[in-house]
Amino acid sequence: MSLKNPTGTVLYSIEQAIKEYRKVSQRNIEKIVKDITVDQCLILMILDKDSEISQKEVADLIFKDKASITRMIELMVKKDYLTRTIHPEDRRKFNLEITEKGKETLGLINPTIQINRQTALNGLSLEEINFLDKTLKKIITNCKL
After folding, report:
1. Structure confidence at residue 5 (pLDDT)
2. Largest CA distance in the chain
3. DSSP secondary-structure letter at 2?
4. What is the four-CA torsion angle of 46, 50, 53, 56, rounded to 10 degrees?
5. Cα–Cα distance between 62 and 46 in angstroms, integer?
6. What residues form DSSP beta bridges with 84?
7. Rounded distance, CA 75 to CA 83, Å?
8. Which helix or strand (DSSP H or E) is residue 104 part of?
9. Are residues 33 and 109 in contact, defined by beta-carbon separation less than 8 angstroms?
10. From CA 18, how far away is CA 132, in angstroms rounded?
11. End-to-end Cα, the chain, rounded Å
12. Angular region, 131: left φ>0, alpha ψ -120 to 50, beta rest
């Protein structure tokens, strides 16, 4: 066990890789748009791909609990990235829609997101990326048992 990896497991390295990726991503996004976080960008990206998705599904996709996603969405509404209206058929649900500002922001940050991903995966072959993805999916499956 080393000081750089206090738990002595690859799981610590995975956690560190995620945190470093999030830090560099946030730094690069802030250069383009000052008042948005990585998670808020993810919400915009998810809603852009599927405007019918539920708030709970969004929370699951970005690994947030119900209270956290509610706070994030309220903040995004205040910042004019999203609108939230009550679902016409089920008053317990909300419809989330990306505003014009949100769409413009997506257009601005998409190139940065691609650069962030390229930076993180720099020097890895497609074979290595596929192997890593397969390995991580096995760990995820093991933990869901």
Report:
1. 65
2. 57
3. B
4. -10
5. 9
6. 96
7. 11
8. helix 100-120
9. yes
10. 14
11. 28
12. alpha
SS3 label, residue 137: helix
Rounded CA gap, 46 and 87, in Å? 18
2 pLDDT higher than 60: no
CA atoms of 7 and 1, how far apart (whole Å): 7
**Nearest CA among 44, 140, 36 for reference residue 96:** 44
CB-facing half-sphere around the CA of 124: CA atoms within 13 A: 14
> Which residues face 95 on adjacent strands?
85
17-34: pLDDT as tens digits: 999 999 999 999 999 999
pLDDT of 45 higher than 90: yes
Residues 6+ apart with CB under 8 A from 34: none
Give residues with Cβ within 8 angstroms of 81, minimum separation 6: 36, 40, 44, 98, 99, 101, 102, 105
- For the chain, give the number of residues: 145
What is 4-28 written as a DSSP string? TBTT-SHHHHHHHHHHHHHHHHHHH
